[in-house]
Amino acid sequence: MTAKAISRRNALQAAGVTLAAAVVTCSGLGYAATRSPETETPELILGKENLMNKRVLVAYATRAGSTVEVATAIAESLAGRGYTVDVKPVKEKPNLADYQAVILGSAIRMGSWLPEAVDYVKVNQQTLSQLPVALFTVHMLNTGDDEASRANRYAYLKEVRPLVKAVDEAYFTGKMDFSRLSFMDRFISSMVKAVESDQRDWQKIRAWAARIFA
Ligand SMILES: Cc1cc2nc3c(=O)[nH]c(=O)nc-3n(C[C@H](O)[C@H](O)[C@H](O)COP(=O)(O)O)c2cc1C
Fold this sequence. Notes:
The protein has 214 residues and is an alpha/beta fold. It has helices at residues 3-34, 66-80, 115-123, 125-128, 147-154, 183-191, 202-211; strands at residues 44-46, 55-61, 84-89, 101-109, 112-113, 133-139, 168-173, 175-176, 197-198. It has a single domain (39-177, 196-211), classed as Flavodoxin domain (Rossmann fold). The strands form two sheets. Strands 1, 2, 3, 4, 5, 6 and 7 form a seven-stranded mixed sheet that branches. Helix 1 (3-34) packs antiparallel against helix 6 (183-191). It is globular. The N and C termini lie far apart (49 Å). The structure holds flavin mononucleotide. Flavin mononucleotide (FMN) is lined by residues 62-67, 107-111, 138-142, 174-176, 181, 185, 188-189.
């Protein structure tokens, strides 16, 4: 099949998904269809007993929960390095005044960081510019080492990158768990032939956390 034919097929598939989503939304089933199962967004403090007087915030945005566990693994590594680490959801708008460094992470939906994570960066842009900031992204597509994959995942931060000068950006493969999705998200996932799997590479995540801000 030619590249033109593939891109035409992709365009038709995308149009089909959009049309079907619009039909469900407009038919009054919209609210039920977009309602996700409740996802826990815990707040944790790790390394309270550490003597080093440096506090790091790991703030995350999630829909289905896998980013929370990534944020927690990062925080555990940092606590093991002597930092006191707060893990908080960005939707709680954590106050940056208490921190010497910040790690911000978001799941990807439809090619972008979650809106509450982007908003948090916008609102705190000034303070973030005075702190060491690292970013992590949890996603399922564009995971390859080829140029197209790299460019596509780099584009996930197109809204955020101009707002904050990060010391590092990490991309971690995530998890698809249909039981954690709304009807609509399951529908979209099945249209793009997504499969359930947990692709989180804990070694890679911990290795990143072991060297960040070193
Ligand atoms: C509706 C939907 C849209 C998604 N869109 C993308 C996407 O555009 N690119 C991508 O790489 N991953 C995409 N993903 C995969 C998620 O980023 C991945 O499952 C991630 O682990 C979700 O994090 P969470 O469990 O913290 O919400 C999508 C997942 C769903 C359910």
